[in-house]
Design brief:
Blueprint: H1 2-12, H2 19-22, H3 25-35, E1 40-41, H4 45-49, E2 52-57, E3 60-66, H5 71-80, E4 83-86, E5 91-98, H6 99-106, H7 121-124, E6 130-135, E7 144-152, E8 160-167, H8 172-182, E9 185-186, H9 201-212, E10 246-249, E11 255-258, E12 266-269, H10 273-280
Parallel strand pairs: 1-3
Antiparallel strand pairs: 2-3, 4-12, 5-8, 5-11, 6-7, 7-8, 9-10, 10-11
Length: about 290
């Protein structure tokens, strides 16, 4: 009986893949997708994970503190060169519609007593970014929602405008709820499923290849079903990937879209910031049809 038991245990043990097999690109993608199901990774996650202590906050995996003493290097970069910070975990809400209707309703959640508003000429033209504090509709100076930054898309001759509002992920749900209320936006009939979540037939074939390599034990989720890794989920950690991320008003035609993790955001600090941008970004040539 002891011999039979030992043979049975050997069969149950799975052989671990060699490092070369684990480091294959297709295996790395599947493993990375599995590890960021609960906490979303930023585009710079791999770079930060090698140099920072990572923490899980607001549905993201973020770099908290460096693993080595790099404070002097950061200070030197800020004062003499250029320091880049990844702020892509900030949430972005996009408002699209007629300019007059947008300004009319947005005036209800801010006040000129606190400084600039969405109607400021320098910000309305799209040349500068503005910042202000938002409040619940018609409740100023009470019931403050939190600080936000915004930028208008420059005019293109049409009466429709686009406005991007950036906020901390801890404030997103409250601000989104208030915007949907003042514009009377309701969810569209069809549920929007991002392309990044939908698994195509080719992806399933790739996953079959991944599972077949090394004959590793099948991964199972909590329900005991076979778990197939998917692409990186777009959105913040508080939103279901199958939940609608676009809302429209039947009366005014205003559309509110959640662009979190679709529009990345970086901050450059230092005297050489403009030089870095000039050398990095190249203007595209105009093509006339």
């Amino acid at each position: 009986k002891q011999a039979e038991k030992a043979v049975h245990q050997k069969k149950e043990q799975s052989k671990t893949k060699c490092r070369k097999a684990r480091r294959r690109h297709i295996n790395l993608v599947a493993e990375f997708n599995r590890r960021q199901r609960k906490n979303i990774w930023l585009e710079t996650h791999i770079w930060h994970a090698k140099r920072f202590h990572m923490v899980k906050k607001w549905g993201y995996s973020l770099g908290d503190s460096p693993t080595e003493k790099s404070y002097r290097a950061c200070y030197r970069a800020m004062t003499k060169h250029c320091l880049l910070q990844d702020l892509s975990y900030y949430c972005c809400l996009e408002l699209t519609g007629k300019e007059n209707e947008l300004l009319k309703q947005l005036a209800r959640i801010c006040s000129t007593d606190t400084g600039l508003t969405f109607e400021e000429a320098c910000c309305l033209s799209g040349r500068f970014e503005g910042s202000l504090n938002l409040y619940q509709a018609d409740r100023y100076p009470e019931d403050m929602l939190g600080p936000v930054t915004f930028i208008w898309k420059p005019r293109d001759g049409s009466e429709n405008r686009q406005l991007w509002i950036w906020m901390h992920p801890a404030l997103k749900q409250d601000i989104l709820r208030e915007l949907k209320a003042i514009f009377q936006c309701s969810e569209p009939e069809e549920i929007y499923i991002p392309e990044a979540v939908a698994t195509s037939i080719q992806e399933k074939k790739q996953m079959d290849v991944v599972l077949s390599l090394g004959k590793k034990r099948k991964k199972e989720d909590k329900e005991g079903e076979e778990a197939v890794p998917v692409k990186k989920i777009i959105g913040d950690g508080t939103r279901d990937p199958l939940q609608s991320c676009s809302w429209i008003s039947q009366t005014s035609g205003i559309v509110i879209s959640d662009r979190t993790m679709e529009i990345l955001r970086y901050r450059l600090i230092g005297p050489l910031s403009h030089s870095v941008l000039t050398e990095t970004l190249k203007a595209a040539s105009l093509q006339t049809v």
